[in-house]
Structures are given as C-alpha cells and as structure tokens.
From TrEMBL:
PANTHER family: 2, PUTATIVE, EXPRESSED-RELATED, CHITINASE 2-LIKE. GO terms for biological process: carbohydrate metabolic process. Coiled coil: none annotated. This is GH18 domain-containing protein. Residues 13-293 form the GH18 domain. SUPFAM superfamilies: (Trans)glycosidases.
Length: 293
C-alpha cells in the first residue's frame, strides 16, 4: 500500500554537524552564515554502568577545555545562526541503554544531564548566559523494551524541559533513529511529539539500490512520523561508519537535490566533523545547495 504524500512545501532551514572526539576548537570554517540555523552537536554524554546496567549518571567524553562555554560564546557572537547541542547516548558497544531501575535511572539522568548543561552557563553580572541550545538522543545500542525506552527518555526530556533553570538550554530536542532501532525511536517520538523538534534519521546506516529508493524511504519516514518539517536526512563522512553500506556522499547529494526540487527537505545533518577535517567539502557543498550562496 502506498503511503499518502504530505503536501507541505518546505525550504531547508537547518544544517547540523556532529563533533565526536578531541577537536581543538569548533570548525567555524564550515559555517555558511546564510543558513537560517547551524547546529554543532557534541558527542557524547555517556552513561555510567554498574554490573553492566545503566545508572543514569552521564559524563561527557568530548574535550571540554577545547569545546567549552567560552569557545561557544565566541562562536555564537561571530555567527548568529549557530547553536550548540549536547548528544546523549553513544555509539560504542559499551554505550547501551539498559537501566537497572527505570525511576532511579530517570532521576539520575535528569540530574546529571542538567549538570552538564549548566557547565555551559557563563555568569555575567547578576545573571548568566546559557550557551547550549538543546539535547540529542543518540543511542545505537538498546537492550530494553520499546516501552521502557520511550518511558525513560520521554520522562527525562519532559523534566529537563520543565526545569526553569534550563529554559533556553532545552529549546531544541532531537532523536537519532536508525533502521535497526526504528521501533524504539518511533514509539518515543509518537508519545512525545510535542517535545521533540528534530528527527536525525541515519540514512547512512543502510543500503540503497538507487537514488529513487532513498527518496522513497524519506517520504515513507515522513508519513510514519507525520513530521515533514522535522525529518532531517543524515550522511556520514566517516568511512569506517559507512563502509558496510552503499550510500556514498555523491548518492546522498543527488537524493537531497531531488527532495529540494520537490520542496520536501527541511535540513540535513553530517556525521562527523572529525572525519571531514580539514577540508569540510561535503558540508560546504550541501549548505551551498541549500542557500544558493
């Protein structure tokens, strides 16, 4: 059965880039100031495990000295379209979503993630400046039920959004589904659609026989999530991450061009800046495609 097509007319408004590892600074050279929004996503804040089970106590793995709040403040002053987001979860085999106790995990996760966000608040006079803009839910390994994942992550998102100390810092929440974990992320989204702003779908984690197949999957996902304005297409410059799949960067650009020509694409994300360095050719190409500048 063919899915009905959404008739939303979209212009690409957002470009997102993951930073994974130990860059010495934000790669500002890739930023196209003509983009409406440009996000750097810091990866990852990872869980702490006891006897193989997640405790909900998250710690950052990126270089805080090189990518800390002062660097963010300088970046957002120089580039008004830039925002910085913290990614929660991780891609390693050890970074598994598997809480021992749901409610204890939620309480710990809310508290520890809040602390990570507040580390990016700069005190100015009697107030402060929040330099992060949101969080990204990005687990590639889940060892729990679909309902537990949706319940735990949904509650953490809600509690962080309701925390008055974090009003600006929780302005944008994204999730990062893969084909293998689609049931988990789709359930999470459908139960929390008013709290989730972007869907970073990892197209680079599967294979396609043709560009048209890529476009068809994009339209199918728009239908399943019911979110044409939120679905972002993902591509990887990490040859290790994408080596098992057939989607090349050239393939991806062709697919995005088709979606742009039918006003169907809200934006794109790239994994990741570390693999793209030092040239960032793909990032520049996609942003020029979006902005015509």
């Amino acid at each position: 059965m063919l899915e009905p097509e959404f008739k939303a007319v979209l212009k690409p408004t957002i470009f997102r880039e993951y930073i994974n590892g130990s860059l010495d600074d934000y790669p500002a050279g890739m930023i196209n100031d003509n983009m409406k929004e440009f996000h750097f996503i810091l990866g990852f804040a990872t869980d702490t495990y006891v006897n193989g089970k997640g405790t909900g106590v998250f710690t950052r793995t990126w270089n805080f000295k090189s990518l800390g709040p002062e660097k963010v403040l300088k970046l957002i002053v120089e580039h008004r379209n830039v925002k910085v987001v913290i990614s929660i979860g991780g891609h390693g085999a050890e970074d598994v979503f598997n809480p021992k106790n749901r409610d204890i995990w939620i309480a710990n996760a809310k508290s520890s993630i809040k602390d990570l966000i507040l580390d990016y608040k700069i005190d100015v006079g009697s107030g402060g400046i929040s330099t992060t803009y949101g969080i990204d839910i990005n687990y590639e390994n889940i060892d729990s039920s679909v309902d537990d994942f949706a319940y735990c992550i949904g509650n953490v998102i809600q509690q962080l959004k309701e925390d008055e100390d974090l009003s600006y810092s929780m302005s944008a929440v994204s999730i990062a589904p893969t084909e293998a974990l689609q049931s988990y992320y789709l359930t999470l989204y459908l139960k929390n659609k008013d709290k989730i702003d972007w869907i970073n779908y990892k197209f680079y984690k599967q294979s396609f026989d043709s560009v048209i197949e890529f476009v068809k999957l994009f339209k199918k996902l728009v239908y399943e999530y019911g979110a044409p304005f939120k679905l972002l297409a993902g591509v990887s410059t990490d040859t290790i991450t994408s080596s098992s799949y057939t989607m090349t960067t050239e393939f991806f650009v062709k697919g995005c061009t088709i979606l742009l020509n039918t006003a169907s694409l809200a934006g794109v994300f790239v994994w990741d800046a570390n693999s793209s360095a030092p040239t960032y050719l793909l990032e520049e190409q996609i942003q020029k495609l979006f902005t015509k500048k």
